[in-house]
């Protein structure tokens, strides 16, 4: 039996190599697409998964080329990219795959993909339809590498009833501003805590972008692969952590745990007056609150009100894989084009709360109805339009690991294990070591 | 006079062993040696061995405070889980050893954790332990952040695991109790032994063979705990619940650092092997068959 446990552990350590495909194949003409089947891997579960299935079925029954899309739910974003790494042995993987924002650098460097720009150029598709601040994230060397599909930004959710009771007219615009109104909210407002602030790496990245500062060198990892972090040198990280700790020490922002959703429960339960969350959580929050109080939305806060920056997007995009099959590649493009069409995007937005990635979706009736029903969503759109491409955010191959490191060190700071200065130093040291290793081994 | 066995007869046994050996070779020996091989390399993003570093991965681990922390929390975790799950299982089995109405319902309840997947149990505990809407804080009136406070997180995960593992222990101990001859209790009663004396001098020694077996299984099972950590704490807060198996998972499938993960696996293997050897040594002295 001891062997059993050992073998289990050993087997876990055994996922091995992958051989990357190469070379861009020529695109086939529309004519011979009949009967082509493409594999599509995605990470949309729950309500979002149902909306995805609906779109796929719609395409399968309505497309005039005879293309069949075989959509497969592969688990969460992490699972999908990990499965892709394993499946790339012998091209047994997908033709189109949905990869999260922080997998972008990895996918570009992987050598498995056809840049979306090639498919776009081939078809003469009008890229200007895509929201520029969304396209900016996936554009590297002025080429759009993947097609944005489900994009979101974080926003501040607040309990309007509590704000009224506390006599606070406006939602705060910065972490410092949150501290200013916190006493009123917990006093007359009746809140248990001013803000339920989940420990989430994405929020840290956004707070950095809101200061207009960069995360890594080489143009935030966009001109060339990053070699080290710069948030320690430019002081951005320390600003965030100091302000975070101030809120925590005063009891305004207690530790509600790790992850993007960890603050939502307290908010929906009417305990906290504010929370930070993705726009994609709007539907869920409204459902959980269920009319108990009025939910307001505001821009994602900066660190101090003097900050000049913007938010970047999160979510995922669609990557075309190079399987050296011209027909499949052409079919993949047809499907992508369908997914980002105004009609599909309006439907997708209404069902999920992700942005419509194309501006022409705003003209669709279904979009107009949705925004009339959920006026809170307008905040997200305005915030996106108020940002600028230069705050598109960093690209880094080791981003998933970096996020974990950031979260661990924020946790250590809140729990009094380390000071903000020590936490920033530890973050920088660990992430730099990981970048260095990666660059050494993956030249 | 005995006839000398033919070649076929002499080698036949190996033929029967062949399928088993093949399965072992593919699923045990090959991964085992591959792991040792990988532990000597640094791997690239695809998990391919790329740079030979010799014992470099081991040196990194042995000088890393994070790894010692993993070992420490794993040991604390294993102790809590093994003691807790065996105590709950034993208590349940002793209580259910008497015949009374409704005994089946109680037995089922005590054995039930066996049937619950660790991940789904962790999801339920996540809600129970939630600081603001969880039932535990509501009922006790406490305001403790169970899984986000490093003081409580490890204990919470360990107690959950102890409860999960107690079901199978209950079953083992129930079977063990059934094997103890009733008549020795009668004789002890006649001699004037109290129920407590009977428990320590008759029940426990009578259970010792099965006790040893459950101990070994429990220790190994506790070392393997993964789903609870993944769902409840992801190794946090800080690294206070970063059990070694979770740390291996993170390194291998999250950071794609198979070399380090393989080295940790090898170290875990050595620890479990030493523990098992020590236990079998002790068995020779302590267990009465």
The ordered H/E elements of chain B are HEEHHHHHHHHHHH
Q: What separation lies between the terminal Cα atoms of chain B? A: 41 Å
Number of helices of chain A: 19
Distance between the termini of chain A: 42 Å
Strand content of chain B: under 5%
Most extensive interface, residues per chain?
A-B, 53 and 54 residues
Supply the number of helical segments of chain B.
12
- Residues in helix, % of chain B: over 70%
Give the amount of beta strand of chain A, in percent.
Answer: 5-15%
Give start-end ranges of low-pLDDT stretches of chain B: none
Short description:
The complex is a heterodimer of chains A (443) and B (289). Chain A has 443 residues and is α/β, with parallel strands linked by helices.
Protein topology:
The complex is a heterodimer of chains A (443) and B (289).
Chain A: H1 2-12, E1 37-42, H2 46-62, E2 68-73, H3 77-87, E3 96-100, H4 104-110, E4 113-114, H5 116-123, H6 132-138, E5 139-140, E6 143-144, E7 147-152, E8 154-159, H7 160-166, H8 175-186, E9 193-199, H9 201-210, H10 217-221, H11 236-249, E10 255-258, H12 264-268, E11 272-278, H13 282-289, E12 295-298, E13 314-321, H14 326-339, H15 342-352, H16 365-373, H17 377-386, H18 399-414, H19 420-441
Parallel strand pairs in A: 1-2, 1-3, 9-10, 9-11
Antiparallel strand pairs in A: 3-13, 4-13, 5-6, 7-13, 8-11, 8-12
Helix pairs in contact in A: 2-15, 8-11, 11-19, 15-16, 18-19
Chain B: H1 7-38, E1 41-43, E2 49-52, H2 56-62, H3 65-95, H4 103-111, H5 118-128, H6 135-140, H7 150-178, H8 182-190, H9 195-224, H10 227-232, H11 244-254, H12 258-286
Antiparallel strand pairs in B: 1-2
Helix pairs in contact in B: 1-12, 2-12, 3-7, 3-9, 5-7, 7-9, 9-12, 11-12
């Amino acid at each position: 039996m001891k062997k059993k446990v050992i073998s289990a552990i050993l087997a876990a350590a055994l996922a091995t190599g992958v051989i990357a495909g190469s070379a861009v194949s020529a695109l086939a003409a529309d004519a011979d697409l009949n009967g082509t089947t493409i594999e599509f891997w995605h990470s949309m579960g729950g309500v979002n998964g149902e909306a995805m299935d609906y779109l796929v079925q719609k395409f399968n029954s309505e497309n005039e080329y005879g293309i069949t899309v075989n959509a497969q739910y592969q688990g969460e974003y992490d699972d999908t990219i990990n499965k892709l790494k394993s499946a790339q042995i012998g091209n047994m993987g997908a033709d189109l795959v949905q990869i999260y924002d922080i997998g972008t650098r990895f996918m570009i460097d992987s050598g498995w993909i056809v840049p979306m720009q090639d498919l776009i150029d081939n078809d003469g598709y009008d890229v200007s339809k895509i929201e520029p601040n969304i396209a900016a994230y996936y554009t590297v060397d002025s080429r759009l590498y993947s097609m944005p599909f489900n994009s979101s930004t974080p926003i501040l959710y607040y309990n309007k009833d509590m704000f009224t009771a506390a006599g606070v007219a406006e939602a705060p615009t910065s972490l410092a501003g949150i501290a200013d109104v916190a006493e009123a909210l917990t006093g007359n407002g009746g809140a248990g805590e001013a803000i339920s602030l989940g420990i989430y790496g994405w929020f840290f990245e956004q707070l950095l972008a809101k200061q207009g500062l960069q995360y890594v060198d080489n143009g935030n990892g966009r001109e060339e692969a990053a070699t080290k972090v710069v948030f320690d040198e430019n002081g951005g990280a320390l600003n965030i952590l100091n302000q975070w700790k101030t809120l925590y020490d005063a009891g305004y922002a207690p530790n509600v745990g790790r992850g993007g959703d960890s603050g939502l429960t307290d908010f929906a339960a009417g305990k906290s007056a504010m929370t930070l969350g993705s726009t994609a959580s709007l539907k869920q929050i409204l459902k959980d609150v269920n009319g108990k109080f009025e939910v307001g939305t505001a821009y994602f806060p900066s660190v101090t009100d003097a900050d000049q920056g913007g938010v970047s997007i999160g979510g995922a995009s669609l990557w075309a894989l190079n399987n050296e099959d011209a027909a499949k590649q052409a079919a993949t493009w047809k499907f992508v084009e369908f997914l980002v069409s105004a009609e599909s995007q309006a439907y997708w937005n209404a069902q999920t709360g992700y942005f419509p990635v194309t501006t022409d979706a705003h003209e669709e009736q279904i979009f107009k109805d949705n925004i009339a029903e959920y006026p809170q969503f307008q905040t997200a759109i305005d915030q996106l339009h108020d940002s600028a491409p230069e705050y598109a955010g960093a690209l880094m191959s080791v981003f998933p690991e970096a996020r974990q490191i950031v979260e661990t060190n924020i946790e250590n700071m809140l729990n009094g294990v380390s000071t903000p200065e020590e936490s920033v130093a530890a973050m920088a040291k660990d992430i730099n070591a990981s970048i260095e290793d990666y660059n050494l081994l993956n030249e | 006079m005995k006839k000398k066995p033919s070649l076929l007869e002499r080698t036949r046994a190996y033929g029967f062993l062949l399928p088993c050996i093949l399965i072992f070779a593919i699923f045990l020996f090959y991964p085992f040696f591959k792991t040792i091989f990988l532990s000597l390399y640094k791997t690239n993003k695809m998990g391919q061995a790329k740079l030979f570093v010799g014992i470099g991965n081991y040196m990194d681990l042995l000088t890393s405070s994070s790894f010692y922390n993993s070992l420490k929390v794993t040991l604390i975790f294993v102790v809590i889980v093994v003691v807790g799950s065996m105590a709950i299982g034993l208590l349940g089995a002793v209580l259910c050893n008497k015949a009374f109405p409704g005994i089946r319902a109680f037995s089922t309840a005590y054995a039930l954790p066996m049937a619950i997947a660790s991940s789904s149990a962790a999801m339920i505990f996540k809600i129970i332990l939630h600081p603001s809407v969880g039932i535990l804080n509501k009922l006790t009136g406490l305001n403790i952040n169970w899984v986000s406070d490093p003081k409580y997180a490890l204990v919470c995960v360990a107690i959950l695991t102890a409860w999960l593992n107690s079901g199978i222990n209950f079953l083992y101990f129930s079977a063990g109790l059934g094997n103890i001859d009733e008549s020795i209790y009668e004789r002890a009663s006649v001699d004037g032994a109290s129920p407590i004396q009977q428990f320590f001098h008759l029940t426990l020694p009578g259970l010792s063979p099965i006790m040893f077996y459950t101990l070994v299984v429990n220790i190994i099972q506790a070392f393997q705990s993964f789903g609870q950590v993944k769902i409840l704490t992801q190794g946090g807060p800080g690294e206070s619940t970063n059990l070694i198996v979770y740390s291996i998972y993170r390194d291998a499938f999250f950071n794609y650092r198979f070399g380090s993960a393989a080295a940790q696996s090898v170290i875990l293997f050595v620890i479990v092997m030493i523990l098992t050897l020590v236990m079998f040594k002790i068995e020779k002295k302590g267990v009465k068959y």
